[in-house]
Specification:
Shape: globular
Helix content: 25-40%
Distance between the termini: 34 Å
Strand content: 15-25%
Largest sheet: 5 strands, antiparallel
Number of strands: 7
Mean pLDDT: 92
Oligomer: single chain
Low-confidence stretches: none
Strand order of the largest sheet: 2-1-7-6-5
Number of helices: 8
Structural class: alpha+beta
């Protein structure tokens, strides 16, 4: 099936936005805030796109919770009612990874439906809910989500899975287009993403009235931290997808880079559509 389509070449019309983003990235590099940043921007009304440093791979961290969400929707297609099955969180998550941006979490000893766990996983990026879901997730289906969309099959035994900003954007495209899951399930996933409570990064660069469905993820190492965020942004005049991947030595400094890029893109997209009438 046709899951998404776009012009082969980058948009000339979006080139002024690309230059602005490149200038922002250069500024943050010079100041030492980041080592690298990659960006993918897709404007849906006309299908135009731009990409910056699209060969650079990043550790997606919790961004992989979006393909996991899609996996559970695929599992539910073959097993209707699956999302209402209950799982008990009876063993604590043991990990050597630490997260900077924490929110709500499921409680030990309580039972939750898969639907509730998916909400915790996406809205609050809860690793405990994800840990519980991982034990129930069908791994072949998870891998197939990637290969169906033309992405490299993830190695479940590897320490990291590297992905580019452009590649990751594929997951968000198919949710917006309703072209991989059916329309109802795509809307359900997008609604969950709109409840993501991470207010730094993309959200901080947007006006309060602007709607966004998004997910962020922390990855990398203690000496080279990665923060990425991808969002479907619904403004009054345009709908677009923006994915920003960053790396640097201080995790708490990386959201300001994503915020600056988000703000610049929103301003340009708004002006662009205003000028086009």
């Amino acid at each position: 099936p046709l899951m998404y389509a776009e012009p082969v070449c980058e948009s000339d019309y979006l080139s002024p936005i690309k230059r602005d983003i490149e200038s922002i990235i250069t500024s943050f590099k010079v100041s030492g805030v980041i080592r690298s940043a990659s960006v993918y921007l897709r404007e849906f009304n006309n299908g135009e796109w731009i990409s910056i440093d699209d060969q650079k791979r990043y550790s997606p961290g919790s961004l992989l919770k979006v393909p996991e969400l899609i996996t559970f929707m695929k599992m539910n297609e073959s097993r209707p009612g699956l999302l209402d099955s209950k799982l008990v969180y009876d063993r604590p998550l043991v990990t050597n990874k630490t997260s900077t941006y924490l929110s709500k979490s499921i409680q030990l000893g309580k039972s939750y439906t898969i639907r509730e766990l998916l909400h915790y996983m996406i809205a609050y990026s809860d690793n405990n809910a994800t840990y519980l879901l991982n034990q129930f997730m069908d791994i072949p289906t998870f891998k197939k989500v990637f290969t169906d969309l033309g992405l490299k099959e993830p190695d479940m035994t590897a320490a990291e899975y590297g992905i580019t900003a452009k590649e990751y954007s594929t997951f968000m495209k198919v949710l917006y287009n309703g072209s991989y899951l059916d329309l109802k399930d795509s809307e359900y996933c997008t609604e969950l993403l709109s409840e993501c409570d991470f207010k730094k990064g993309l959200v901080a660069g947007l006006p309060p009235e602007c709607k966004i469905a998004h997910k962020f993820g922390e990855g990398g190492t203690s000496s080279n931290m990665h923060l990425g965020e991808s969002g479907l942004i619904f403004s009054n005049r345009s709908t677009y997808l923006l994915t920003v991947m960053t790396s640097g030595s201080e995790m708490d400094q990386l959201p300001q880079v994503i915020e600056a890029i988000s703000k610049a893109v929103y301003s340009k997209m708004a002006n662009r559509n205003t000028s086009k009438g």
